[in-house]
Specification:
single chain, 201 residues, mainly alpha, Arc Repressor Mutant, subunit A, 2 domains, 3-stranded antiparallel sheet, 7 helices, 60% helix
């Protein structure tokens, strides 16, 4: 998830570490907190794999000429996606298997970069996510039916709350799928003119 999100953000523009961490927090939407302790090792691995490059600051340009000594100011390393990184990102964007939608956190990150995703891939991911959530809903309903008479009212309310949350997600996904389908139909090129019959001999 982290590699995908980093590549997606750097695909839009180069960034230094602080800005990248800030943007990651926005993309993940509170699903996961990204610390520098997890970000920089990931960047190091991706740099070693050739997926990103770094623009190291000029050590002589770190401080203005009149800056007092030992101010601790440092230049910022800028990270840029490479051609290999773009290829890897497009490979990840094109994945439509369970890894793209079974995990809610990864699905959320995939959704954040849907603008880079082909329409048919978007639709398959959304439909896969809906199937996953519908299975979760059926499991919750079965559990609620089995335990209704054996749990206290607080546990029962917690189970109902979970079921309502899953119901909302199914409705939301159904709306997204319907929008995608309408958009696909609207973007289809109109049929061309029918070929005219050849002139009589």
């Amino acid at each position: 998830m982290l590699e995908f999100a980093i590549l997606g953000l750097l695909h839009q523009s180069p960034m230094h570490g602080y800005e990248l961490r800030k943007q990651l927090s926005e993309v993940l939407g509170g699903l996961r907190s990204i610390s520098y302790g997890s970000l920089y090792p990931a960047l190091k691995r991706m740099h070693a794999a050739g997926l990103i490059s770094t623009d190291e600051p000029d050590p002589r340009a770190l401080l203005p000429a009149d800056a007092p000594p030992l101010t601790g100011r440092r230049g910022k390393v800028v990270y840029t996606i490479t051609a290999e990184g773009k290829e890897r990102f497009h490979e990840l964007v094109g994945q439509t298997g369970p890894e793209a939608y079974d995990d809610g956190g990864l699905f959320g990150v995939r959704l954040a970069f849907f603008r880079h995703t082909e329409a048919d891939v978007r639709l398959r991911i959304l439909e896969g996510r809906r199937r996953t959530v519908e299975r979760q809903r059926e499991g919750l309903r079965a559990s609620l039916a089995r335990t209704r008479e054996r749990v206290d009212r607080y546990t029962l309310e917690l189970q109902r709350h979970g079921l309502e949350s899953v119901d909302r997600e199914v409705r939301w996904l159904s709306e997204l799928i319907e929008t995608e389908r309408r958009q696909s139909v609207a973007e289809e090129p109109p049929p061309g003119p029918r070929p005219s019959a050849p002139p009589p001999p």
